Amino acid sequence: MSNASTKASMPAAAKTHKTPKKIKVSGVILVDKPQGMTSQQVVSKVKYLFKSPNHDSKKAGHTGTLDPMATGLLPICLGEATKFSHYQLDADKTYQATILLGSQTDTGDADGQIVAEKFIPQFDSKILENVAQQFLGAQQQIPPMYSALKKDGKKLYEYARAGIEIDRPSRDIIVKAIDLKAIDDHNIQLTVTCSKGTYVRVLAEDIAKVLGTLGHLTALRRLQVGDFSVDSAITLTDLEALAFDKRLAHLLAVDACIALDAVLVLTAEQCARVHMGQRLNVFEQLTEDLRNYISTAIEQQQNSDENGAAQQAIASEKEARKVAPLHEIAVDVRLIDEQGQFIGLGAVSLNGRLQPKKLIQL
Predict the structure, then answer these.
(1) Exposure letters 124-137 (e unless 16+ CB within 10 A, then b)
(2) pLDDT (average), residues 51-73
(3) Catalytic residue among 32, 67, 109, 332
(4) pLDDT digits (tens, 9 = 90+) for 192-217
(5) DSSP 53-113
(6) What pLDDT is attached to residue 147?
(7) 75-106 b/e with 16+ CB inside 10 Å = b?
(8) Collapsing DSSP states into helix, strand and coil, what is residue 353?
């Protein structure tokens, strides 16, 4: 019998049979990254571990690259949680590193080749404390050539491997806290909390220079990202050893990355409307606490430092805020339904206008 005749004789029900839709895995997993893996390799492994015949884990991404040599906290967002990963990309981060003094490598860490050596002067805890204070606060840093930043669509490390030096503009960073401790006559321990975009490799080189020598990283571990701590992270080995349902139990909520306390409760009808992209008037639903939150957030926005390269990308938005009446300036808030379920983010102003921004589809 031909294929055509076979198809023609199939019952209608069989023809319309559909494969059951897979459950989309959504949430945040805190991984303790091992040494030697790239951040993207860790993401690929996590996607594999959350994949099953009934589960779809294709959509995933990390919230800030760690070098292959580095270990420690790597938050990974899956599914709908990827919509909110930028909150952790922008968050402060804490690292602990070991700086080997006396030599410099082309990459700034132990993965590179030694390109220069220099005598190590004597130092003590007082000297290290004084050096640390010089690096506290706002400053500018030139990104290293061995980085994933792009120039004309090509990553800087690709130029570096070809022996090409590219001019890199300095970037604004902030060192929030820093501590230096002597390990021995050749090694010091650096613990630092810094703003996004800070290269600890470059910081280590600069510290060594202030000490009168050269240096590079031999160890780097990320301890904290925003409110996430490495103490709550799981290794890939331990995650793989778990049964699938136990892996799912390690997922944090879809909105775990969002650093916002303000909440606006919407009715079922309002939830349906915002999911269609409609703006709402929620003036009557603005509580006193929510109004105070919006007013404070607006004041902080207007008082924020507008200088430096980190602010250039939002200059036009801030310019618009200057001319807009205060009651029209919108602030991001969490949106939840009447059952307390998170449905996404919206921007609301004191005049009660709500604009849906990023909504989840579970």
Answers:
(1) eeebbeebbeebee
(2) 93
(3) 67
(4) 999 998 999 999 999 999 999 999 99
(5) TTEE---EEESS---TT-EEEEEEEEGGGGGGTHHHHSS-EEEEEEEEETEEESSSBTTS-
(6) 67
(7) bbbbbbbbbbbebbbebbbbbbbbbbbbbbbb
(8) strand
Asked whether the beta carbons of 305 and 318 are under 8 A apart, the reply is: no
**Res. 16: pLDDT tops 70:** no
From its phi and psi, is residue 328 left (phi > 0), alpha (psi between -120 and 50) or beta?
Answer: alpha
pLDDT tens column, 309-349: 444 444 555 555 555 678 789 899 999 999 999 999 999 99
Catalytic annotation present for 238: no
128-145 tens-digit pLDDT: 999 999 999 999 998 877
Radius of gyration over every alpha carbon of the chain, rounded to an integer in angstroms? 25
Task: Tell me how far apart the alpha carbons of residues 24 and 39 are, in angstroms, rounded to a whole number.
Answer: 22
- Count Cα neighbours of 37 within 13 Å in the Cβ-side half-sphere: 17
With contact defined as beta carbons under 8 Å apart, do 123 and 212 qualify? no
- Helix (H, G, I), strand (E, B), or coil: what is residue 161? helix
Are 200 and 192 in contact, with CB atoms under 8 Å apart? Answer: yes
Treating both helix axes as pointing N-terminal to C-terminal, what angle do 200-210 and 125-134 enclose, rounded to 10 degrees? Answer: 120
DSSP strand pairing (331-336 vs 263-265): parallel
Residue type, 11: P
The pLDDT score that the predictor gives to residue 173 is 94
Max intra-chain CA distance, the chain: 91
What values do phi and psi take at 268, rounded to 5? -60, -40
- Would you state the pLDDT for residue 18? 65
Both tokens of 296, joined, read: 């404070």
